Amino acid sequence: MCNAKDDNYKKVKMRLMIATAVIVGLLSCNSNTDVKSDSSTPLSETKVTPDFSVALNFINDYAKFSMPEAQASIDTNWIDRNELLTDHFKMAYRALLDSARKEDPELGLGFDPIFDAQDFPDKGFSIFKADTLGGYVTVVGNDWKEFELVLKVVQSDKKWLVDGAGVINIPGEKRAKR
User: Looking at CB atoms within 10 Å, which of 6, 80, 128, 144 has the fewest?
Assistant: First the structure.
């Protein structure tokens, strides 16, 4: 009779252990499948593909703005009002121009810092290659394929903005070779 009690006890104990394991397993599966987006997750931990069309739109608009029949490209108001640019870009652009004007009031920089050149393609740009991890995109002239230009995009308040172009906020090793 002792053996029957022990066998029943062992069976009940085994059923409880199996039931517990099944419940824990189900709860574990449920917590993994019920992943919710957390807006507090840092951007660096979220894998997001940059929207490089913002850079392309900006540089093509800037090329039109910089044409001889348009206003002079040293007009910082166009840059200041541009909603495709970060404040960081705008401050760096203005600081570079101000510094160049102090050094040489007549000539200034002597080149366009956004194009990193004196001349630029007349027919706009196309994307040549992109670095999705770093946010860098290289564009080439539609009518001047040898003319390459590097821009950088960053996400700010769920919008992609241009944070670098030419010599503005682009490290020397990332810039297009001239």
Answer: 6
